[in-house]
Design the sequence.
């Protein structure tokens, strides 16, 4: 086997490994963020109080629902 084939096989294996690793890491992070959302009700309540608002439970539920809806929707491609 010539040196050129060894280099080609190594490059193909490297590219395939990088692509596969990227997609596995992306899937893992999406699942992790779905199970452990970065913002919860307590954090929202604290943020609203820091902004000078008195948070009601209704307002917090509304904001959490809108954030969850936004997270579930996939970004749509804009057509020109």
Sequence:
């Amino acid at each position: 086997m010539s040196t050129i084939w060894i280099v080609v096989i190594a490059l193909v294996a490297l590219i395939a490994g990088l692509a596969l690793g990227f997609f596995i890491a992306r899937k893992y992070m999406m699942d992790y963020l779905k199970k452990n959302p970065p913002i919860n009700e307590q954090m929202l309540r604290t943020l609203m109080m820091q902004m000078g608002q008195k948070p009601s439970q209704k307002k917090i539920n509304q904001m959490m629902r809108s954030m969850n809806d936004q997270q579930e929707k996939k970004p749509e491609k804009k057509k020109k």
About this structure: Residues 63 and 69 are 10 Å apart (CA to CA). The longest helix spans residues 3-35. The radius of gyration is 23 Å.
